[in-house]
Amino acid sequence: MTVLRTATLVAATVATGLSAGLFYSYACSVMPGLARADDRTFVEAMQRINVAILNGWFALSFAGAMVLLVAAAVLQFRGGGGTAQWWVLAATALYAVLLVVTVTVNVPLNNRLAAAGDPGGGIDLAAVRADFEQVWVRWNVVRALAGTAAFACLARALTLTGL
């Protein structure tokens, strides 16, 4: 049971770190870079990114992180994980914040951006961008912070378990 508990905690940490890193990358490079682009480039790039990210590798780490976090928390509590179990529980709560923000804010914005249509099709690109960019960026920072905090909690849990 100790091996399973440890392996699950390590896997949860890796998956959470991948998600945290993704949202951090958007906050530090992707969105600041696109902020310097014209409206057509911004809208087209974000539409393409939003399609490209819907792939199995992303789904595996993004959704898999929560599955692994819940499993790690259960295994920690069942195995008498001591203080580490509370760090895993905190990480799970923080990752839940990331998921809720994604599902309630960022994905609906992505869907609205997709529904705006082809950037070359005569749509008001400035209005489409204005309705999307500022809110999406703000909430992505929340996701990046929640993911990073979850990752830090898991790192602490790993150290408390002797890893």
3D architecture notes:
Helices cover 86% and strands 0% of the residues. The protein is built from 5 helices and no strands. The chain has helices at residues 2-35, 39-52, 56-78, 83-115, 125-160. The two termini are 16 Å apart. The relative contact order is 0.19. The mean pLDDT is 95.
Mean pLDDT: 95
Binned, the helix content reads: over 70%
The number of helical segments is 5
The SSE string, one letter per element, is HHHHH
Low-confidence stretches: none
Span between termini? 16 Å
Portion in beta strands: under 5%
Radius of gyration computed on alpha carbons: 18 Å
What global shape is seen?
Answer: elongated
Number of strands: 0
Structural class: mainly alpha
**Number of domains in the coordinates?**
1
Q: Report the major sheet.
A: none
